[in-house]
Amino acid sequence: MIFETMMVIALCILMLAILANLYRVVKGPSGADRVQALDTIGINLIASIGVFSVLMHTHAFFDLILLIGILSFIGTVAFARFIERGVVIERKR
């Protein structure tokens, strides 16, 4: 009973963190702040799915955690390259 209550509290705290980062994505003063907030949202989403998986006593969500982790990493690298160079993929002719 206490374990389930702590998991629900952890999910609520992670959702509040996602909302706070969503505010930073919308209101961020620079592109780098927005990219960092999006990366943090990905990490918080992975943690939320992990806590939910433990709460539901299932391993079914582990593939989803890996998928979100990979997509979050690729998205962060793409945004960082865009901020640095102005283009994600350079084409040399």
From TrEMBL:
Q: Which family does it belong to?
A: Belongs to the CPA3 antiporters (TC 2.A.63) subunit F family.
Transmembrane helix among keywords: yes
Q: Which organism is it from?
A: Paenibacillus macerans (Bacillus macerans)
Q: Which UniProt keywords apply?
A: Antiport, Cell membrane, Ion transport, Membrane, Transmembrane, Transmembrane helix, Transport
Record-linked InterPro entries: MrpF/PhaF-like
The protein's name is Na(+)/H(+) antiporter subunit F
Q: Which gene encodes it?
A: mrpF
Give the CC-aspect GO terms: plasma membrane
Membrane topology classification: Multi-pass membrane protein
**Compartment(s) where it occurs, according to its Swiss-Prot or TrEMBL record:** Cell membrane
Organism's domain of life? Bacteria
Q: Name one GO molecular function term.
A: sodium:proton antiporter activity
